[in-house]
Amino acid sequence: MGRGCRALSCVFMRISSPAGLLVGTLDVVLDSSARVAPYRILYQAPDSLVYWTIACGCSRKEITEHWEWLEQNLLQTLSIFENENDINTFVRGKIQGIIAEYNKINGIKEDDDTEKFKEAIVKFHKLFGMPEEEKLVNYYSCSYWKGKVPRQGWVYLSINHLCFYSFLMGREAKLVIRWVDITQLEKNATLLFPDMIKVSTRSSEHFFSVFLNISETFKLMEQLANIAMRQLLDNEGFEQDRSLPKLKKKSPKKVSALKRDLDARAKSERYRALFRLPKDEKLDGHTDCTLWTPFNKMHILGQMFVSTNYICFTSKEENLCSLIIPLREVTIVEKADSSSVLPSPLSISTKNRMTFLFANLKDRDFLVQRISDFLQQTTSKIYLDKNISGSYISSDDEVFTRSSSLISASPHKSLSSESEGERQFNLNDNGIPTATQALMTMYRRRSPEEFNPKLAKEFLKEQAWKIHFAEYGQGVCMYRTEKTRDLVLKGIPESMRGELWLLFSGAINEMTTHPGYYEDLVEKSMGKYNLATEEIERDLHRSLPEHPAFQNEMGIAALRRVLTAYAFRNPNIGYCQAMNIVTSVLLLYAKEEEAFWLLVALCERMLPDYYNTRVVGALVDQGVFEELARDYIPQLYDCMQDLGVISTISLSWFLTLFLSVMPFESAVVVVDCFFCEGIKVIFQLALAVLEANVDKLLNCKDDGEAMTVLGRYLDSVTNKDSTLPPIPHLHSLLSDDVEPYPEVDIFRLIRSSYEKFGSIRADLIEQMRFKQRLKVIQTLEDTTKRNVVRTIVTETSFTIDELEELYALFKAEHLTSCYWGGTSNATERHDPSLPYLEQYRIDFEQFKGMFALLFPWACGTHSDTLAARLFRLLDENGDLLINFREFVSGLSAACHGDLTEKLKLLYKMHVLPDPSPEQEEPDSAFEATQYFFEDITPDCTHVVGLDSRSKHGVDDGFVTVSLKTDKGKKSSQENRNYLRMWSQENKSKAKNTKDLPKLNQGQFIELCKTMYNMFSEDPNEQDLYHATAAVTSLLLEIGEVGKLFSTQPPSDMDSSSCSKAAQGELFPRKEQQQFPLEQHKATSLDRDWAITFEQFLASLLTEPALVKYFDKPVSMMARITNAKNIRMRGKPITSASDYEISTMSG
């Protein structure tokens, strides 16, 4: 082979050798997570110092196999090449081709990840025993601190885990933490290390430092923790966005596709929040530019954002100017002529004859092309909506996906064109009534001759807004400036309130792009009844009952339709108290469809998670408010904490936007500011209210007194500009005869809140929300766990600690299926409407895994079959899912029950009828005898009638059997009757065993198999095996004797020879035992043969070995700990290194 052999030299290297030690040391220095394989085949050209790893192996045998393959498939070919370069090219190409072919055969898809990152993925899965479904996002070099000792290594951030690995000086350190277990994540600074990340779980704290880019690392950690909290909150798993543009081939950055996905998500979230855009809008890109503003004749420096359906602009200087241009409004996009004053200008014209001029664009040609592409897509969607008639495409689970999939069933009418004189209800093509006017226009009580100073002031406000519209534009494309905000703070005119709420909230965009959507929802939700509709009906007459609009059926009906339609649109929220109060106010100022879309904007974007079943969003903002109070009103904070007032006031203030605690005419001004400025207004106002009452609150002795002080203050907040007649307020109606509080002007209060607390920024609130979200959700999880344990502890024999650990393990199994796959949909197994005890459910595949880890009877090849039997027994309602209560009831009986309870559970698992009609009849009692005894004489084969039948499939070494009666299969209804009977028995703890059905031949055979396999790993296996043989023999005889007392005449076949043969045989050793069920022909059932539970129990009590086995205690905590380790790592912990870090946290 000559030159070829010299070029490819096989180097068998033990790492202990000098050369191997050098290579291994260099690898470890460069990468602390690199562990060099003990044997490697390296390729090295004679004149090069660089070597390529061709193959590696953990044993000499493995590496020898690799070398033999190379000799046969590669070395022969090398001899034909003339020079070293050709050999190098061929060898590298050949190896890469082998890898590509392997990927193709095994279905491994090519992705955008760089080669370096692919190596990290392999290393991550191998080091931490993670399945392929666990996706690595990124990895960073850092130090992990345990005590005072730092360990330099790598932190791996995957979708569901934070992992750390270090291997230095022969010492290995590993750490695995699930994101769902993290209770606190913060960036700290110390004297020694200015940047440190602290990760806290329920049981431990972990510190990481010496990052190359701590900001990027911490931001990614926050994102992944947020995804985990979202999973805990509403059971949503993470789905990667496959629509991202591909990474350029020559990109030097080691950025994974998932990291790019998460970065894009974060940017899109900030973009949507900044401009109040629909929640499915994705940012395509942004660039620096200038915008010509005609109202002040200036070029304003800022950034242009381009997404699928919008072009937006915001100035560098905060609040100076912002702009939203929906592409549906755009008519022309063109490049204008460049000049020294206006370089690279871009002109955009809209339908309402406004023209926007952008300049100083870096890549104008690309930008124009991108906008043109999006514009073409938008035009196509508009054409589709206008020209195609058909059914409204939606599903009951998700009513809409994206605007392009919506086809209106009726032409969309502009509701704003209808005058007050037109009819108050619109009947669309489907005959669904919807209010076409704001309720306030119908119930405005005003004298015809009345024109007082308040009306004059209202008229001046209207004129000011009309002048503003003339100067800055009107509608969604208007220039939004500081002057716009100032006008809002002075109060929006009654007649313009609905229009401007739609504009500032962004609801106008969703309503415009979904014509006919609301009417369709109303039609679908009519006549539907569930828990949400019951709660809605109960609260309808509690919604602003003092307002005349809701003192008759017209207003109540409109409120019912909006709330029911939203509950139908978003079943995860459904209906929550406080939604009725907010919605009733929306209906006063907006038309019915507009009120619906305003409610969508509130619940899904502006007040996220506020109105779900656990009001998580409001609790999060309550925590944020406490932090702000500590920072801005420190003198009051400790007092408020002692009184517990903050938690009480914040929920009612935030959930209803002050509508339930302030006079109506004042509270609507707060709503004006909220739609314009967002949640910061509510925080500012709440702080201003506390600050105004500092002295009185400091003198309060209890929370009741403090609530009275704040209640009286809020009652006194007035709106002197309001043209509405005064509406009596709940607090004022309940107030005592104490001297009234001096009036507080709402506009002055709002101005004061901006002056004193205007420095609160939206991005600061989001950071604080993240911190509080971790705390709130984990606290709710702990509360749920305690409630579940408190409920179930009296029903089982487990301790509180064991139940808490079991609940955590059960829920982890459910959550794991959300991202590592499962046979059923994870969302189907989580029903928030159920009691906490029954919310999380697992299917059989998950139960099978937990059965193998926790149940003492799980061993041998029969384990899965036994798990299936127990699963069917525990699944009382037959939905193929079991909840935590059902799971614990089975586990408790198997682990902590007395001898009778354990045997009763075992008996029930085998007496349950088999629901499968496809399976054949089971084997006979004769075969059960052969299962435990050898050399049965052929003479006893006539004990039962022999019928030849075809042998069906064998699984895991056992014939799958089913039970049939003379009339055929047992019905599923009979199954449920059995389960219901046993369920009642468990609940009453009754010991009456006479109600249990008898065990027939086929069931007895399966019970024998189960008992044999139970003992396959027990130290006293032989004794148990002989004891089982004796019990089996005794029960066979009992069953034969029982036939004499049956109603049918006894068979004339000799039934004694088989029993005598059985008693005369010795029980064989396990290693000699075969599975005769697979070797001889099956026979039919003896219909009359049966035994009772009392007979089974009495027979087993005759064998001390079996009694001792079933009576022995089970160490549950040890099994739970082992199960947690295996579930977290995919394998049990084996390392005893001093540097081993706990693999479980939380």
From TrEMBL:
Residue segments, region Disordered: 411-430
Q: Which residues form the Rab-GAP TBC domain?
A: 491-678
Example GO molecular function term?
A: GTPase activator activity
Any single biological process term in GO: system process
Q: Which SUPFAM superfamilies match?
A: EF-hand, Ypt/Rab-GAP domain of gyp1p
Keywords, A to Z?
GTPase activation, Repeat, Signal
Q: Which residues form the EF-hand domain?
A: 862-897
The signal sequence is: 1-20
- Its biological purpose: May act as a GTPase-activating protein for Rab family protein(s).
Name of the featured protein: TBC1 domain family member 9
Q: Which organism is it from?
A: Zonotrichia albicollis (White-throated sparrow)
Please state the gene responsible for encoding this protein: TBC1D9
